[in-house]
Amino acid sequence: MPSVRRQFLSPIAAMALLLCSCAPNQCGHRPPAAPIEPSQTATSDSPKIVNEPTIRVRIGRQSQRLTIEGPDRVTIKAEPDQTVIVPTPLDLARGHGGWYNHGRALFPSASDRLELQPLGGNILNVDNRPYPGRIVLTAVSPSAFDVINHVKLETYLPGVLERELYDRWHVGAYQAQAVAARSYALACLFETPHRAHDVEDTQASQAYAGFSNNSKARQAVLDTRGVVLSYRDRVIKAYYSSTCGGAGLSPTEAFGVNGPPPLSPHQPCRWCDGTKHDRWSTITRPRSTLEKRLAAYGRFHRLPIKDLTRIKGIAIAERNRFDRPTRFVVTDQSGKRHLLRAESFRHACNWSDPSAGLSPPPHRMRLGSSFFNVTLTGNRVSFTDGRGLGHGVGLCQFGANRMAAQGTDPMDILRFYYHGASIERAY
Ligand SMILES: [Zn+2]
Asked: Ligand 1 centroid to 309 CA: how many Å?
């Protein structure tokens, strides 16, 4: 998990106002509540957000082949200085350090980077999925490349909302999610200048569908254009997850990274009570397999638990002030005590390593969150009283949807889950 860095907002003259997308006489929510606070003056040596930025989303990893369809023709720019216009469809591949289209060499000289832009249209179909913006292929080996979508932030966001929220969810939840996702993306953008991409298109960052025709998602992004969460003039990395199960974690508790105060839970969440993932059934696993998973996790992360022997004890070691476990301890027969952050413990319990004969646990056996009790009985480990889905930092999506459905203004939803954050326009 990358560290949470600090970003800076430009001074903001305009007060942002959320516009409800419902017709006034059909709208169940209150009008936007408090005005959005203008930011303080940004420091002069800070990156300033003055225009809508472009975000670089990695949509393919270690690819060897790719099909591109779209408008009739595509401009392909290869570094350092070659441009060709090629008719579609393309069947691109990389081999021997070069690029090929339909099996024929594309450029006379080698290049590690290709940039593809549609001619006479805005959308490229990459392996049958539509994407707005440009597609950049970056070589990662003589025969493989990453696929990165360079897209304007406001064009990117509907594709996030489409994947992150259910179709039937309330428009207010979409608006709150749009602000959180925009803030998260902007924070990532400043973290990664040294990399070829800013975010992944998976839940490692935030899920992304590519071009989205989802009218609710598009309208929510439009309604909140440029609006972000900040704290002391810095955009906050507004983490969110599916269901907190009644209490969240801070970034320090969940990931071991520092975060500003608005990312720490301020009070229990009653809003996701009784929703789909609020409680989960007891999961029982064989002790021996769990030992292998924990040790494999330790080997991968170079932690002392890589030397775990037979488990003699397993328990919650610490809880936060909302009674949610923050650390678990595993004691082995040699007497060693292995202390793991709750989220690390969850990932370790779900760990797979095909080279060690450990396939991923079946879906029904996966730990969906780190909010549970754990007991060892003989050769079986039971995970009981399971609550929630996801890491539990920041906004609780199921909670946000219920708040919106009950008429809470989207800005107040954000104030609840990111207590103390300012809400303002970045551009
Ligand atoms: Zn919740």
From this structure: 37
Question: What separation in Å is there between the alpha carbon of 271 and the centre of ligand 1?
Answer: 5
Whole-number Å distance, alpha carbon 345 to ligand 1 midpoint, is: 21
CA distance 417 to 268: 10
CA atoms within 13 A on the CB side of 265: 25
| 101 and 37 both lie in a single domain | no
Domain finish residue from 99, 116, 142: 142
Residue 148 maps to a domain: no
Alpha helices, H only, 121-214:
153-164, 171-191
In the chain, the number of structural domains is: 3
Q: How far is the CA of 272 from the centre of ligand 1 (A)?
A: 4
86 in the same domain as 172 = no
Query: How does pLDDT run along the chain (427 residues), one tens digit per residue?
Result: 333 333 333 333 222 222 222 222 222 223 232 323 333 322 223 345 678 999 999 999 999 999 999 888 999 998 777 888 999 999 999 988 889 999 998 876 678 899 999 998 889 999 999 999 999 999 999 899 999 999 999 999 999 999 999 999 999 999 999 999 999 999 998 887 788 999 999 988 999 999 999 999 999 999 999 999 999 999 999 999 999 999 999 999 999 999 999 999 999 999 999 999 999 999 999 999 999 999 999 999 999 999 999 999 999 999 999 999 999 999 999 999 999 999 999 999 999 999 989 999 999 999 999 999 999 999 999 999 999 999 999 999 999 999 999 999 999 999 999 999 999 999 9
**Cα(247) to centroid of ligand 1, in Å?**
7
Q: Which of 142, 164, 190 is the last residue of a domain?
A: 142
Flag whether 256 is in a domain: no
Q: What residues contact residue 187 under an 8 Å CB cut-off, 6+ apart?
A: 4, 5, 7, 235, 236, 237, 238
- Residues 316 and 416 reside in one and the same domain: no
Residues 409, 339: Cα–Cα separation, whole Å: 41
**Distance from Cα 148 to the centre of ligand 1, integer Å:** 33
Q: How far is the CA of 303 from the centre of ligand 1 (A)?
A: 32
List the structure tokens of 171. Answer: 């428009």
Instruction: Please give the distance, rounded to the nearest whole angstrom, from the Cα atom of residue 393 to the centre of ligand 1.
Output: 10
Any domain includes 3: no
Are residues 231 and 82 located together in one domain of the fold? no
Based on the fold, state whether residues 382 and 397 are members of the same structural domain.
no
From ligand 1's centre to the CA of 53, what distance in Å?
31
**How far away, in angstroms, is 416 Cα from ligand 1 center?**
11
Q: How far does the centroid of ligand 1 lie from the alpha carbon of residue 406, in Å?
A: 15
Domain that holds residue 127: 65-142
Predicted TM-score (pTM) of this structure: 0.86
Q: Which of 57, 213, 32 is nearest to 136 (CA)?
A: 57
Sign of dihedral through CA atoms 350, 354, 356, 361?
positive
